[in-house]
Amino acid sequence: MRIGVLAVQGAFAEHIRVAEELGVECVELRQGRDVEQTFDGLILPGGESTVQGKLIRELDMYDRLKEKIADGTPVLATCAGLILLAEKIIDSGTVHFGTLPAVVRRNAYGRQLGSFYAEEEFGDLGKVPMTFIRAPYIEEVKPGVEVLARVDGHIAGVRYKNQIAVSFHPELDRNPVIHRQFIEMCGTKNR
Ligand code: GLN
Known about the structure:
Oligomer: single chain
Number of helices: 5
Structural class: alpha/beta
Strand content: 25-35%
Strand order of the largest sheet: 2-1-3-4-12-11-10
Distance between the termini: 13 Å
Helix content: 10-25%
Order of helices and strands: EHEEHHEHEEEEEEEEH
Mean pLDDT: 95
Bound molecules: glutamine
């Protein structure tokens, strides 16, 4: 199994470390030709969504990545990655992939106070550690989107078809349950 990790900016190295520790080969997606390879899953890391959104277009990765997501390739999106997937970003006219029927608010906890740690239930995985860094939250989900986690009353994790999106950073905590569940999804996708 091979997982493509968007590696233009942000916390991609940490995702690669976790996935490799779980025995999965990773490919760094840095430019247009990288996304032409075959991979069974896609990780969109945290970082700065405006920068990532600009780079995926400038580096000719946008169309192919969007096609793969729409085609059913399993995606794990964290923090800025969630913003890239969202159908609507509050106070912004920009939409990136727009494949996740949800409305997100960037820097939703305030720019300075936006970093904190919590432990909350996540889907059927029990309590998981959650590190938030200038995190967005999901303000609204459309029908068909399953809410996996709430923190302080705000939606912090969802699943929609092949897309898992969280507002925190599971790659920074020593508990790889979310990655493991994602990797299982990658292994079971019908091709
Ligand atoms: N604040 C960032 C953004 O809006 C997201 C932060 C993160 O990925 N840790 O893109």
